[in-house]
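Ticket #4471: structure output looks truncated?

Reporter: J.K.
Steps to reproduce: submitted the chain below (327 residues) through the standard prediction queue, then opened the result file.
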Amino acid sequence: MKRPLVLALFIVTRIWLHAQGAGESAPAFSIHLLDSVACTPVKDQSQSPTCWVFGTNSLFESDLIKKYNLNVNLSEMFIARWAYIDKARQWLATGGKTYFAGGGQFHDVVRVVNKYGMMPEEAYTGRPQGEANHNHAKLDTAMKSFARKLLHQGKTKLNDHDLKQMNDTLDKYLGKVPDHFWYNKKQYTPKSFATDVIHFSNDYVEVVSFADHPLYKQFVLQDKYNWAGDSFFNLSISDMEMVIDTALAKGWSVGWEGDVTEPGFNAFAGYATIDTVPPDCTMERLADFRTEKTGRDHMLHIVGMGTDESGEKWYYMKNSWGVWFSK
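Returned output as attached by the reporter:
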């Protein structure tokens, strides 16, 4: 079964956020949870642009609970590190025309796991000095500076010396990646962990809804974060909602990307709404995306669905902003 990763761009009009624990950050009014998926505890991306890793890893962790009754904390920074190197390669190959920064999309996580493997958080935290929180300000600055220098030198790919320097920078800010590590009294490499422990397989599909592309076909989304030129399946909004609801009803969670700078998104209150849906929502979404009025600046993990006292549907989403904003 293909499981959905959704680039939704706020097709859902009501969400409440899983921030401190199941139900603790729900809005003041009553919501009855209809379908929910087991998920791991909320993490904190803190001062790092890595929601795409936290959200996707969270989805993988829920899948592992469902498929194997395996509760594992996967390393976000192992993924972010390798993605940075791949983005640098693409950036140089295109003469600096693709995206090169700390952000990304969920297919970037899938690509890294397929190419390089995976590690548990306990083996690679990405906080080499035991820092309490992630802070990538200096890392992002250093990586951009180094990549620009290579571009100005006319380079179109990383040679061994360039790659060593890039890894030295990543080692400094994220820590050196171990070749081997222990997990549950067994020794693994990143690739053997991905194969033997989490049994990773690329059985996910990414869906979007854009009115300027044919429905039920794939296309390459022109979005800066899609630096690798991945394809998405285009569905109608109603069909996308059906895909989400069906997945939740069958016990599978969904990755969601959208705009959390909209006025109705209130992380402190624990919910987000769009109170007035425009008459032609499909075309307005498209126009807002083109003008960047509506962006794609955050990824969350849909782990449930419910209804409020008026019968309105809500989606329950796991965030990656920690538990510091408890009510």
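Triage note (M.O.): checked the attachment and the full token line is present. The chain is about 35% helix and 20% strand.
Status: closed, working as intended.
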